Amino acid sequence: MEQVASEPKNPYRDDFLVGLRSRRNEPVWLLERRQAALAAFERLGLPGKRWEAWRNLDLTPIADNRFPLLHTWGEIDDATVEAALGDVPDVYRMVFVDGFFSARHSALEGLPSGAAVLSLDEAMDAENPALERLGQAERTQQEPFLALNTAFMGDVALIHLGKGVVLDKPVVIVNLMSTKAEGRGVYPRTLVVAEEGAQASVVELFRSNTADAYLNVPVTEFYLDANAHISNYRVQEEGGEAFHLATVLARLERDATFTLHTLAVGGKTARTDIHVDLEGKGAEAELDGLYLAGDGQYVDHHTWVHHNTEHCNSRQRFKGVLDGKSETVFDGLVRVAPGAQKTDARQENRNLVLSPRGLAHSNPRLEIHADDVKCSHGSTTGELDREALFYMRARGIGERDAQALLTFAFVNEMLDTVRLEALKEYERELILRWLPGDETVREIQ
Amino acid sequence: MLQIKNLHATVEGEEILRGIDLEIKPGEVHAIMGPNGSGKSTLSKVLAGNEGYEVTAGEILFEGKDLMELEPEDRAREGIFLGFQYPTEIPGVSNTYFLKAAVNAIRKYRGQDELDAMEFLKLVKERAKLLKLEDQLLNRPVNEGFSGGEKKRNEIFQMAVLEPKLAVLDEIDSGLDIDALKVVSDGVNAMRSADRGFLLITHYQRLLNYIQPDYVHVLVNGKIVKSGGKELAEELEKSGYALFEENAA
Ligand SMILES: Nc1ncnc2c1ncn2[C@@H]1O[C@H](COP(=O)(O)OP(=O)(O)OP(=O)(O)O)[C@@H](O)[C@H]1O
Ligand SMILES: [Mg+2]
Question: What is the ipTM of this complex?
């Protein structure tokens, strides 16, 4: 009689094998990295309550590969693309639908020489040297969703900026979900390699055409060589039932600067993990985040900023607004490694709770192993000023409108760091639509 | 237009207003004077609908409507304006935008078209001139970093833009220098009309030299202990409140 294999069945492995069939043209080294990542994920498992950094987040709804990998993509009409910053002319645009590169919707003409913006297939055909960085991050062994993405990533977006290349226009990467993504898992991946002195802005937009549940696990990696300057803008407006579990990695060499600006409004459960490694003297990172959590939403930002050498600066400013029954997390760690003298690190988290059922967790942390450093962190959570509300109502402004005005006043400064006018306008409208109140407040200047 | 009958109100369980009766007819200017802590601001906040104050007895009718039934914003939309003794600072909201939201909310309530940007700007410029308010103050966040006098001028400026039926002005004269007092008084006087009522709260006869009241009431310990014409204010200036406090006890 034959023995039934007693090994536990891994629900992700079948998906992986099916996925492999469509990747027959991938180089062996990449397949090996995928294999290793899958093994890492199998070893790590989905983080549970006992995993400190994940204890507030209930992942049982996505356990056991309940959102299997999507192998084909759906239809997206032009209006959807248009609405996703599609009508802004002066950008390089890459559109991904359900994780698949849609060349038809993209616009990449006129890139300066030394710059490449490519999908994975194109990058392999062109044998782009930056590709080699794909999937080699050490953290893949420790971060389950980074590992899962590395195993399953599909049509990667690769941005490679050669030495001294300054991109004249921002690259906008639009990640759209069609109805095809319902009940499925999607693993978008962006890799940005900026060689010495290169500069660019990279916008990532996450939008969906479906109100049903799906799982989006995007990863974006940045490698900044000496004196490179990269801005990353992320706008997360996933569908109302979506899971969005994102990872951002940035590694900075000498005198490089990385600025990150995120706006999170969508999803039912949304988390963004941001890992910044300051590896070269004079490197500088600025992280700004705004999250607006409405009824039924869970929004989480974890940051790990590692000062691994001396004379680096980092500044983090995260602001949240909570309405209805919502829950948010800001958990930020600044770690100053031994010998990282003259570190200047600041961290700030402020939350505004509009409803008694809103729950904001705020946990800024410092771990300092050097003595000549300047580090500060602060955290506040409060409600709207009652006197200010009364003053406005006494002038005839309705209660929800007054709340909206005061809330907008609280978040407004976060738009100041958006240096792209069209994006600033886009974000402003997103915020205004989110605010309570009626049409009167929609025209706040 | 305003009838207050046997009004009792408490703050945090403590009775502050203890039976106030007052009637204001269109076109009349009433002044309330009284010592510190007698309940003047409390009366104004109760009229405007501040939730921190509880009315425990009595009634307030405004043009026949029961005020207690109305939210603060609806009282304002019905035509009641409260000039605050301590105007609130609202960081991040520009004075102009704030006023525009107020004007249009009121117009909407009354079934009127909203003012467009041009019409609104014209109105604002005109009224700002009346109060000698610099343009720069219009664009700054509401009251933020305004001097005491600027805050008071801003209150009257808002009143001039909103054109209420009844204006309750709480110590609009405190903290003003002579010139500003004149500007503010001129602003109020310019707004006087046959169908608009005023309730001025003040400590000083001085204001009443500029804005001549039709009636003066003395509020002591939560009650109106005496009412009369403007000569009552002069009497108060000479004798102080001591006499009335005895009566009230
Ligand atoms: N929010 C509050 N909480 C507690 N006590 C209050 C509150 N508001 C008013 N009071 C009390 O009610 C009483 C009346 O205060 P009110 O401000 O009405 O006096 P007022 O006549 O306006 O005085 P002033 O001339 O000093 O402005 C005071 O004893 C005051 O301390
Ligand atoms: Mg007072």
Answer: 0.96
Boundaries of every domain in chain A: 4-280, 385-445
Contacts of A441 in chain B (CB under 8 A): 101
pTM over the 0.90 mark: no
| B38 touches ligand 1 (CB under 6 Å) | yes
Helix, strand, coil tally for chain B in percent (to 5):
40, 30, 30
Helices (H), chain B: 40-48, 72-78, 95-109, 117-130, 135-139, 148-162, 178-191, 205-210, 231-239, 242-248
Per-residue pLDDT band at B11 (split at 50, 70, 90): very high
Q: In whole angstroms, what is the distance from residue A438 CA to residue A398 CA? A: 9
Nearest CA in chain B to A398: B73
Residues of A in contact with B77 (CB under 8 A): 396
Considering CB atoms only, which of A388, A396, A410 is closest to B106? A396
Mutate to test the pocket of ligand 1, among B8, B10, B11 (most ligand atoms within 8 A of CB): B11
pLDDT of residue A3: 45
Whether B163 and chain A come into contact, CB under 8 Å, resolves to no
Residue B88 Cβ contacting ligand 1 at under 6 Å: no
Please check whether residue A150 is in contact with residue A135, taking contact to mean a CB–CB distance below 8 angstroms. Answer: yes
Instruction: For ligand 2, an ion, list residues with CB under 5 A.
Output: B 40-41, 85
The C-alpha atoms of residue B139 and residue B156 are separated, in whole angstroms, by: 17
CA of B35 to the centre of ligand 2 (A): 9
- Spacing, Cα B40 to ligand 1 middle (Å): 8
Q: Which amino acid is at B105?
A: A
Contact between A396 and B76 using a beta-carbon 8 Å cutoff: yes
Mean pLDDT for the stretch of residues A168-196 = 97
**Looking at residue B239, what is its pLDDT?**
82
Report pLDDT digits (tens) over B200-214: 999 888 899 999 999
Q: Which residues on chain A are in Cβ contact (under 8 Å) with B75?
A: 394
CA distance A157 to chain B (A): 39
